[in-house]
Amino acid sequence: MAEVPLSASNVVAALNASISTDAAMRGMAVQQLQRWEAAPGYALMLLEIYLDASTDSQSKFLAITMCKNTVGRNWQPRSSHSISQQERDQFKRRLVEVLCNTDPSRIQHLAEFILLLRKVCRSEFPAKWPEMVNWATSSVRSLAANIAGIPRDQALGLLRIVHGVVKEQQTKKLLSARKQTFEIAPHILEGLLPVWQHFSGATSDWELCRVVDGTTLILLCIGFQKLYLVPSGLNIVSSVFQRLMLVVNEYPKSFKDPYYEKDLKTLLKWFAQIVHTHPLALADCGVDKMLTVILAPGSGWINKKDMPDFFDRYLINIVQYCMNCTAYRKGISNVTASQAEDEQVRQKLISTLHPQFMSYITNSGGLGSAIVEPVINAGLCVDEQNLRDWFEDPDEYLTGPPCVATDLRLATEACLLAAQQDPFTEALAEYVAAAANGLVQSLAQLANAFSAADAVRCDAVVSLLNLYHTILRKIGENETDPNKRYASVIVDRIAVPILQLPPTQPYVVLLKYRIMMLLRTWAGELATSQRVEVAVGAMGRCLESNQEHPGVRFQAVLSLRSLFDRDPEHPVWVSNGLLRGIIGRAMDMLGSSGGVNVPEAQWRLLTAVTSFVNESELSDALQMPLLQKLVDLWRSPSTDELVKFALLDLVKGLLANYYSASTYSIGKELKTYPAVIECSLTIAMDASGLAPNQPPYPSSTGSSPTCSPLRVGRSQPNPPPPSPVNQATITGALSATQGACSTIKEAGLALLVSVLRAVRGEDQVSHVLPLFSQCLTRFSPEIVESPELNEVDIDLITEFVALHLLPDYNPNAAEAVKSNPRQQFSPQGAEALSHHSEAIARGIKQHLQHRIDLYSQDPTMNAPKAADDRLADKVFRLVRMLLVVDGRLVDQIVFPLYQHFITFFPADRSSSRSSSAPLYPFREEPLLMTFATAMAHHPQKFLALAASGGLESVAVGAQKIMGLMPLGERGSTSPSRRSYLLPSVNQRCLVLAVPLMLLSAVADSRVLGADAKGLWVSLWNQLDCLVDQVEASQAKAGGSSGVSGLLTSTLRELRSKVPSHAKMPYPYRVSACMIASSLPPDVLHAQDQDMLEWLLKVAVRVVTTFDQRLGNGAGQALLSFIESDRLTQVVGQVASSST
């Protein structure tokens, strides 16, 4: 496509083509406009097109809109197509020229022009745009000087522009921006205040009044650090409240004017902000008079009917800000004799406002009557019509009754919480206690004639008990009065009677719903007050009843889960099969026939069931009917993706619960749960696409005609319409349940990993082994698009390798290290595995090479993160397992990696530590263990390859390996005070053998020279430390040191490779394979003493080799480097026993 030059005519043509009905033309025009964004002068040209008198109205609108968007994207220097400083300066000058030379009422598309102006002001005003400050100040002063002579439309246009600039300044939260506002606001307000005073008594032209009121109140709110110190500041605030009273009283006459309602909202919103930001400025207004006008019984504004939705909310905000003001509540805490004028004024105002506030509360009958009652009536009582709509359409409000999260209710709860602060805590508690007692007395009437209004009032009291849980709990902790032991009162005298009511009326359902939420809030106190059994019984009966509202039963499951989490050992859970019944009823509620169709609610039900399953012994409850429900729900075409993730998490939790590490402890009978395995494997194969003739589920990032990234499932001839799901809820649910698994397929593969860890017996193993070939294709470089492997793929291959090697392994982890697991490896499995060795090696090599290439390009930018390290560590773990049975990996992977290590790993680690970048693309510990495993299991092959590089290469390798094995704290001889890269004796023995055997491979006389002395001294000192540590352990144990730390270090390594949120079955086969890889073939028992003896024999062979090859006392020369007499004696003893 030929490049279209940037010109005014071409831009106008492209702008008009961008709204063409021809899709092809529209697409080309949009692409061209995007290309021009990078061109210098584009934004300024758009502005000129808009200002050109010859441009038609549509083109003007398109130009100013495109200009606004371009400026918003590219004004900042850090943007990709940043507008140059020269163009920005020219752009600002042109805007000011327009403002100075044009009647605002004649500016076309003024709203879009103001938005453009705000975009520029966002970054430039006021510090970098003094011309705009001068224009704003001078224009309002001119308007004030000739307010009667300026046409109305011109005044309105000018004030709209000033309002836009001021409102943009209000959105800036940085302290530097606020300080700049403090500098310019007084100058703008000086000119604007006479204009506002001129219109303060106006009850017409609400459009103009709204702009004047809004601009003035924003400046009062944000323009002064201490408004009470401003001359006449208190009087101005008092005048603002008088203006607000005038506008409120005009409601019956002017409510049909849309600008009247906007002006009313502006005044309420910003007056509330003035109370919040400048509470001391209300001294002249009188906080007692203000609260009386707002809250007075009968006549207060809060009692007005048919007001706009925002009206009560802003009134309650004003009351909340008053309650939050410490000066109002407590007065002057510390009266000082400060000479500072500011402090004297502050103390004087507080001494006026505190009595006003307390006087209002006292004269109104106390905190309850003055504040709490009117606020509850306005914002906490549910509207009867909303309640009936919810009752008749439970799906819409399944996760909550009406007015649970509306702006009004949230403001009301915030205000009521503010009322519990000192000095009103005790008075508020007494009010709530009286309300609770009144509720108890009223419950006797519920079965008789009880109006909906009375029930709504009871609902408000239940909400109070929920809201004030914290202070009521503290009061009831040591209370002897039974009426104030709130946990017992709530269960016995409120919850039980309400939950026994027949659910025939909407208000009864509402009360039951609130009670379930109340019991969930008080779950911790119920557990400590021994009311669990009563509460569980009452909620369990509601859950069992098919007559109950679905929302009530739904909340019952969640509340029971909260109680169970806090007291899972209570005997009530196992009596009469209660827990099995809860799980069964919760599962029955899922799906269209169960009443719970909202995806978010289904997800919450499944997570509750997961909690029950994960924390309890439910072997008798895990029968095939329950598991079949899971499979049916999974395969239902109407099941949402959010629910599918929860199902996968639930099934994985089942496996983790019944195949955890505790099931492999000594002396515990090993059980199998074939039904769980069958259910898990079915769902895993469906989700991962491994099931025969079943395509994989699509990615979460796919598209859908209704709910694009959210819908998954098999395609059906007539699929049901998908339920709408909130994107934020999906994202939160995925992070909470799956972590790294961002798609159904990946989550299904993760579940398959759990299945592989749990399978046991010939039938189960033979069922899953054929899946290895399919999973291996995801590991192959020919199939995978990116060289970066997925973590779940590495886990799968690792588990399949372990399953091949140990299909019949007895999974007793604590017994595993009493004998080398290598002896139990299956020859048939190793043979079958060898056929796939090339494919596995290619995938590993490509991944490692990709990491090395990235790091070499830019070590700082591409430094491995924690997740990268975990991924690479798992790859090395897989290599170590395969090395036990396949020596080909030494040539293919280990030795090339060793060559890279000796070439690029920093020799002087201390000099590299000043940099924030890691030393190397891989962590040292798994790297060293990989080299040591290859050396232990295939010494001849590894040494032959290493020796081919000559003495220099061998010496560099030995020095770098020893550099990673410091002795720890300088001067310390205690093993407990030394820190090691490798935590166990076994691992250090294995790694220390590598440099010893490397040096023996060349046996050159230069290795005995003075230059090599430091290396040999370090080697012998490391060996001496190992002898010291083993002897100290034996002395402490009074005999043999027993099982070494190999098992502990192995388990620690396995745990460190699992994200903290993941719950998986214990990988007993992989653990055994790792232990086998850490033991040389001729070491039959993984005890510290055995490994030390093996290493000492290696050392003796090294000495013997030097003697045989070099003669002339070469071996004795090596021994002369030993600085410890004890080590000399030990080596001599081992040498004697060997001969």
From TrEMBL:
Residues 692-726 are annotated as: Disordered. Its main location: nucleus. The keyword Transport applies. Residues 699-716 have a biased composition (Low complexity). GO terms for cellular component: cytosol; nuclear envelope. Residues 29-101 form the Importin N-terminal domain. InterPro entries: ARM-like, ARM-type_fold, Importin-beta_N. It comes from the Eukaryota. It is found in: Nucleus. GO terms for biological process: protein import into nucleus. GO terms for molecular function: small GTPase binding. It holds the Pfam family IBN_N. Gene3D superfamilies: Leucine-rich Repeat Variant. Keywords: Nucleus, Transport. The keyword Transport applies. This is Importin N-terminal domain-containing protein. It comes from Perkinsus chesapeaki.
